[in-house]
Design a protein that fits this description.
Low-confidence stretches: none
Structural class: mainly alpha
Distance between the termini: 59 Å
Number of helices: 3
Radius of gyration: 16 Å
Shape: elongated
Strand content: under 5%
Mean pLDDT: 80
Order of helices and strands: HHH
Number of strands: 0
């Protein structure tokens, strides 16, 4: 049986420091993948989809931060040209 209490605690720990927009992206992305597969109940597989989304987003954020550092920008978003 799926334990929503443990799931909630795990997700809170894995997404510590994420904005609400990121958290929304994770859950919506996982729900869309699940819906496309025709699955209608929340279970351990849904948890796995969410963890995949978290890992993918963390990888994207890390890559963005590395690119930003290489061009002298802190954080994400648009940067004013130094030219």
């Amino acid at each position: 049986m799926f334990d929503i209490g443990n799931f909630s605690d795990e997700m809170a720990n894995k997404t510590s420091g994420f904005t609400l927009a990121y958290i929304k992206e994770i859950f919506v992305g996982a729900a869309l993948e699940y819906a496309n597969e025709g699955i209608k109940e929340i279970d351990e597989n849904y948890r796995n989809k969410i963890v995949e989304q978290i890992d993918r987003l963390k990888k994207d954020i890390k890559g963005t931060n590395e690119v930003n550092k290489s061009v002298g920008q802190n954080g994400m978003g648009f940067a004013k040209s130094k030219v």
